């Protein structure tokens, strides 16, 4: 006998804008593969970021993304503000990324609902 308890529902397909809940559902589901890009400067990234996010500051983002991420990869992006996020997402789409989603509210919204964050300890 199969129980439906504990089965995680399949998340919605990637949208051009996502709420933190949408990303969390994707992470909990575990597939298909995705990459979370934090485009804020490294000091802010080190202070706190969404668990699993990769630091790719805006000034080096496009070159680094093209060198390491396939154009068909699902990318979730956030910056300091939703305006920054929208600008970066637009740049990623312009260079050929087809699956880019802007995380509304970024790390602040993520923390506000109690989802886990990471910090990077740096030597003083």
From TrEMBL:
Gene3D superfamilies: Rhodanese-like domain
Domain Rhodanese: start-end pairs: 30-119
InterPro entries linked: GlpE_sulfurtransferase, Rhodanese-like_dom, Rhodanese-like_dom_sf
The protein, known as: Rhodanese-like domain-containing protein
Organism: Stenomitos frigidus AS-A4
């Amino acid at each position: 006998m199969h129980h439906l308890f504990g089965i995680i529902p399949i998340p919605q397909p990637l949208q051009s804008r996502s709420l933190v809940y949408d990303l969390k559902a994707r992470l909990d589901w575990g597939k298909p593969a995705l990459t979370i890009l934090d485009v804020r400067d490294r000091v802010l990234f080190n202070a706190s970021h969404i668990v699993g996010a990769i630091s790719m500051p805006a000034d080096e983002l496009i070159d680094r993304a093209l060198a390491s991420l396939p154009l068909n990869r699902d990318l979730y992006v956030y910056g300091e503000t939703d305006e920054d996020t929208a600008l970066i997402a637009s740049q990623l789409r312009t260079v050929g990324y087809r699956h880019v989603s802007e995380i509304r509210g970024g790390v602040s919204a993520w923390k506000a609902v109690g989802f886990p964050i990471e910090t990077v300890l740096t030597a003083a």
